[in-house]
Each structure stands twice: as C-alpha cells, then as structure tokens.
Design a protein that fits this description.
By secondary structure, the chain is an alpha/beta fold. The protein contains eleven helices and 14 strands. Strands 2-1-3-4-7-6-5 form a seven-stranded mixed sheet, sandwiched between helices. It has a seven-stranded mixed sheet with strand order 10-9-8-11-12-14-13, with helices on both faces. β9, α8 and β10 form a beta-alpha-beta unit. The structure holds S-adenosylmethionine (SAM).
Length: 362
C-alpha cells in the first residue's frame, strides 16, 4: 500500500495521487489536518509520500520517515515533506526553519553550501529535487508553476515504487523485526544445528544459506565444512544482515545482500543450499528452486527447514492448507523435480518441517 500523509485540506495530493494511481497499487491517505494519527510503522507500505504543510517538525512524521529510510521504503517528500525528509535523514536533530522560503539547516538547500550528510538538491525539469540514498526524493515546488513541473518527477517516482513494491514490502516487514529476531526464537538453535547436519556436508565444501536473516544457522554450516570450507548467507533485508554482523555471524561466513531468485554466484558454486522460512513466502517458488539448482554443483544438497511443522502450524492458526501451498508434498515434490532436484526425504512432522533433495546431473 502507498501511504500518503496530508498536512492541510488545501494540499490536494492530486498530481502525486494521479501518478501513483497508475501503478495500480492501493493508496491510503492519512489526513493529519483532520486529526488522523500518523502510522507508527512502515509495515505493509510500498511507498511513503509526505505532502506540504505548515512549519514544524512533528515527531510522528519524523519517526515514520526515519523508519522508511531505514527499511529503504521509497519516500517522496513535497515542500514541508521534503524538509522533514532531510531532517529525518540528518538524524532529526537539526534546527528547522519555518516555511518562509528559507531552508532548514542541514536539510534542503537552494545553494551550494551543503554539508557532507545533507545531499545537494539539483534541478529536474524546473523543480528542486533532493535525493537521499537510492529511493528517497524531496521535491520543492516551483514557485510559479507548482504542479506541471513536478509531474515528471512524480511519474518517475511512481515507476520506481511499482518496480520495487515486492522487495519494499519484504524489507519493511523484516527491518522492524531484525534487531530482536534472535531474542524471539532463543530455543531454536539446537534444532537449526540438527537440521543443518542433515545436509551431510564434508570438510572443505561450500554451503549457502538463502534468506539467512540474522545468520542463525551459519555456525552449524561452518561446523560441517570446517575452516577450509566456504559459508555464505544471502538476504534481501539489509537490517537482517546488520543484525547478523552484530551477532558476530560474519566471522562464520560471508554475508551477502541479494535476492534469492538472482544470486550473485556462478553456476555450480556451492555444494549445499540451506533455507529456513523463505520458500513459501516467495511469489514464484519454482523460480527460486531453479536458481538454487543453478548455483548448486551436481549431487549437491538442498535442505528446506522450519522449526515447526507446516501442516501443524496451519492447524494451530485455524486455517486449512491452501491447495496451491508450495510446501505441501503434492506441490513441492513436482516443483523440485521440474527444477533440477531429486527429493530424498520429506518430513512434515508436528515439531519440524524438513525437506532434503539432491541436485540432479543436467
Ligand atoms: C522468516 S525469515 C527467516 C530468517 C532465517 N532463515 C531464520 O530462520 O532465522 C525470512 C528471511 O528471508 C528474507 N527474504 C525474504 N525475501 C527474500 C528474497 N527474495 N531474497 C532473499 N531473502 C529474502 C527476509 O529478509 C528474512 O530475513
């Protein structure tokens, strides 16, 4: 969902909204001027748009903008929204100038004396555009022709939002949970280790954990392949990898930021792929299985794991397994066969889910 934060009744989001409507993604408007509360998380957001409004540096908007920047949710700030965005990127402690045309210090400048952490704005089709990182844009309206000049920027922002929607949702969800991920699942360690050992990797071999999160299984993979082997963990959410590094998991293996369906590895680069809690959340599981087969050497191993049973978990949540659920035996085994894997073992026990498959020779 695209979240728009509207500060004044007069500030119609029409130009922005029209551009974003073209993405077909749902839009939710928070009317601050009508007393509506600014959301306190970016969960479910594929973009955040903060519109113009009166001077001030409201804490809720700054907190939401900071959360969006942390999770790399695309952000568009217009007028005051652009100033708030710059303040949030700066840490939010900078002074804030009222909207008398003067830019706040350390925020959006119209001149060249920007500091290291306050990126310089530049002209795009007549509007002042500030870019922060890969996906946050601040737009200062043209004083005479506010809307037409900004249209091109809004259109390009909408294209970026649509292109990244899926990735943004994943990152927004896991960024918020990353710092406390391991605390929530303290008892799982031995079960992850036992599952990893079912891969039966040997000393000197190469192991990959896809969707590694905080890298909980990396020590067990290192244990198997020894100091001569190679261990790597791949994840799409930077905050998960940051948490992994904080826990010292970088000492057990390489931590890579990448998409499970487009791995930055050559064909046959690893002897074993481990993945926990990922496959059934991917939009195209077969695409992922095919990519994992590509990077796995012939006779290499795939191990899919979850520390609770799949069917049992569904029952516990009071929902039936959907006919197209990718982890049911009837769906997973044909998918594996079609993507270069031979199933060696499928266990959907009450206390764990475990699938072991072997890479077939091409
Ligand atoms: C449920 S968590 C599991 C983390 C870890 N495997 C564990 O068991 O603790 C799923 C992880 O997959 C990552 N993820 C989701 N989609 C991904 C994708 N397309 N490519 C790589 N990682 C992805 C998330 O960022 C998250 O860290």
């Amino acid at each position: 969902m695209i979240q728009i934060v509207e500060h004044t009744a007069a500030e119609s989001p029409s130009a922005v909204a029209a551009a974003l409507a073209a993405t077909g993604l749902p839009v939710r408007v928070c009317r601050v001027w009508a007393g509506e509360r600014v959301p306190d998380t970016v969960d479910g957001m594929v973009a955040l748009v903060v519109l113009d409004g009166p001077p001030g540096a409201p804490a809720a908007q700054l907190a939401l903008l900071r959360a969006a920047l942390d999770a790399e949710v695309p952000v568009l700030g217009v007028g005051t929204g652009a100033r708030l965005l710059a303040l949030a990127a700066d840490g939010g402690a900078g002074s804030y100038a009222p909207s008398d045309g003067a830019a706040p210090q350390g925020a959006l400048h119209d001149h060249a004396d920007h500091t290291d952490h306050a990126p310089a704005p530049h002209d795009e089709g007549g509007v002042r555009v500030l870019r922060i990182g890969p996906s946050a844009w601040g737009v200062r309206r043209h004083p005479v022709h506010p809307v037409p000049y900004a249209d091109g920027v809004y259109g390009r922002f909408a294209a970026l939002v649509a292109d990244r929607a899926e990735r943004t949702t994943t990152r927004a969800f896991f960024t918020r949970r990353a710092a406390t991920w391991d605390e929530r699942f303290t008892d799982d360690g031995p079960r992850y280790a036992a599952a990893a050992h079912r891969m039966e990797l040997r000393s000197g071999q190469r192991a990959l954990d896809v969707g590694c999160g905080t890298g909980r299984v990396l020590p067990a993979l290192r244990d198997q392949v020894g100091p001569a082997g190679v261990v790597a963990g791949v994840d799409l959410t930077p905050a998960m990898l940051t948490a992994a590094a904080r826990q010292g998991r970088g000492a057990q293996g390489h931590l890579l930021l990448a998409d499970a369906c487009r791995l930055p590895l050559r064909t046959g680069a690893v002897d074993g792929v481990f993945s926990a809690g990922l496959l059934n959340h991917l939009p195209d599981p077969r695409r992922a299985l095919r990519e994992w087969a590509r990077v796995t050497a012939p006779l290499g191993v795939l191990l899919l794991f979850h520390p609770s049973g799949h069917a049992e978990r569904a029952a516990r949540h009071g929902r039936p397994l959907a006919p197209d659920d990718p982890l049911t035996e009837g769906n997973l085994l044909p998918a594996l066969r079609a993507t270069g894997w031979r199933t060696a073992c499928y266990e959907d026990a009450p206390h764990h889910f475990l699938l072991r498959a072997v890479r077939t020779a091409d």
